Amino acid sequence: MAVIVAASGTPGALAAKAATATIPIVFAVAVDPIKEGFVGSLSHPGGNLTGVTNLNVEIGPKRLELMHTVVPAAMRFGVLVDPTGADLANTFVRGVQTAAEKLGLQIHVLNASSERDFNSAFDALAQLHADALIIGPSAFFGARSEQLAALALRHAVPSIFQYGAFARAGGLLSYGTDETEFYHLVGLYTGRILKGEKPGDLPVQQSAKIELIINLKTAKALGIAIPLSLLGRADEVIE
Q1: Residue 149 and residue 122 in contact, taking contact as beta carbons nearer than 8 Å
Q2: What's the predicted TM-score (pTM) here?
Q3: Radius of gyration (Cα) for the chain, nearest Å?
Q4: Alpha helix (H) ranges present in the chain?
Q5: Parallel, antiparallel, or unpaired: how do β-strands 173-177 and 210-215 relate?
Q6: What is the fold of 4-55+178-209?
Q7: Cys bridge to 219: 77, 169, 212, 224, which one at CB 3.0-4.6 A?
Q8: Band of pLDDT at residue 41, cut at 50, 70 and 90
Q9: Who contacts 143 (Cβ-Cβ below 8 Å, separation ≥6)?
Q10: Is domain 60-176+211-238 annotated with CATH 3.40.50.2300?
């Protein structure tokens, strides 16, 4: 039996869904799988798709709060999103905007859908006098975590992203779904289908474990003092 593992986000899952209505598909996405038409029900998918979702869109406001805690004087925040995933980007921005209004902060949305857009986005941050940057969920961004971390460090912009690779490569903070757990769940479902279970009988799962990684070396380079209370909550501190 063949199984298609669409673990690269929404675009890959949509492409797999369009390609076949019979081969089992296991997706890994941050979007609402019902809204995107992947399944008719979370508990009883019913078709040839099932998979795992994460909270990387929902915790966007928390990323803003974390950055505000780390840089309390910051008032203007850039929010970098990938416009090719409009629903994902718009949902993320709405959540961050609501949180910003409650905290009395300003956000400025920046778009990037290719690598050449990154330099323009960081130049715009400087022109806007933005104090910090929040990077939105995107498979395209995720594959370029190290590049984004290098740009953030070069431009001396305190930044937060969902992927641990971002913080490990020099980004200030990462806060998002634990990738090990996320893809482990994908692997478990793939194995169960290969053993004969039907994807339509396997409820869509949500990976709920969130990890916080702090790069203290970057904090020192930026002249930022990370609160001890936050360091105590971190799953990993890079020194």
Answers
A1: no
A2: 0.91
A3: 19
A4: 10-19, 60-70, 86-103, 116-128, 139-142, 145-154, 164-168, 179-194, 216-222, 228-233
A5: antiparallel
A6: Rossmann fold (3.40.50)
A7: 224
A8: very high
A9: none
A10: yes
